[in-house]
Amino acid sequence: MIGRLCGKILDKQPPQLLLDVHGVGYEVEAPMTTFYELPSVGDEVTLFTHLAVRDDAHTLYGFAKITDRDLFRGLLRVNGVGAKLALTILSGMDANDFAGCVQNGDAAALERLPGVGKKTAERLIMEMRDRLEMLTPVKVGKAPAGKGRAIIANPTEEAVSALIGLGYKPQEASRMVRSVETVDLSSEEIIRTALLSTLQ
Q1: What distance in Å separates the CA atoms of residue 85 and residue 30, rounded to the nearest whole number?
Q2: What is the pTM of this model?
Q3: CA nearest 34: which of 59, 2, 56, 9?
Q4: In angstroms, rounded to a whole number, what is the distance separating the alpha carbons of residues 63 and 69?
Q5: Which region holds residue 110: left if phi is over 0, alpha if psi is between -120 and 50, else beta?
Q6: What is the distance of C-alpha 140 from the center of its chain?
Q7: Per-residue model confidence as pLDDT tens digits over 58-117
Q8: Which CATH number applies to 66-134: 1.20.140.10, 1.10.150.20, 2.70.150.10, 1.20.120.1780?
Q9: Domain 4-63 carries which CATH code?
Q10: What secondary structure does DSSP assign to 33-57, as a single string?
């Protein structure tokens, strides 16, 4: 099991990034809450990881915080929640926000995430309530705010593509990005603003 990676970011196209660890390139899928904290391409980062092994694929998921990885693993144990939906949930809110929704029984906030209907939201609240103690507050890999941003050719198109990858329909993803003032924003900032607007 690969539980942690330290290496240089070679490429990042949400929700995927390529990490060079001593000459080996690891393809990693990460939620947007992790992308918000990544440094620029070429910089070093440390990620907590989860390796999912299936008959047709081995997929590595990476997280800036161990709490987010623990939540991801907890979500996978919930009936009807797979890796893609767990990644989508963590892209819409971090572990602390999710814990707040569960503790307060706020199903409405969970339902605003793509792929989460009323029954799934209620199941998440019921099944995750007893698992929240496992979340340990540890942070790694955070870049200094406003420093080392990668230059992106078209952050608006990247943002739309990333939202589609997170489960939003193309028309909905385009509408969400159009509602954001995108001037001088990176793709990660556009996605974050678009996601926050859906939760309000």
Answers
A1: 12
A2: 0.68
A3: 9
A4: 6
A5: alpha
A6: 15
A7: 999 999 998 889 889 989 988 888 998 999 899 888 888 888 888 888 999 899 888 888
A8: 1.10.150.20
A9: 2.40.50.140
A10: HHHTT---TTSEEEEEEEEEE-SS-
The tokens for 163 are 């939202």
In the structure encoding, which two tokens stand for residue 78, read together?
């919930």
In the chain the first and final C-alpha atoms are separated, in Å, by: 38
Among 55, 61, 49, smallest CA distance to 85 is for 61
Which residue, 33, 37, 35, is CA-closest to 12?
35
Which CATH superfamily hosts domain 155-198? Answer: Ubiquitin-associated (UBA) domain (1.10.8.10)
The DSSP bridge partners found for residue 47 are 5
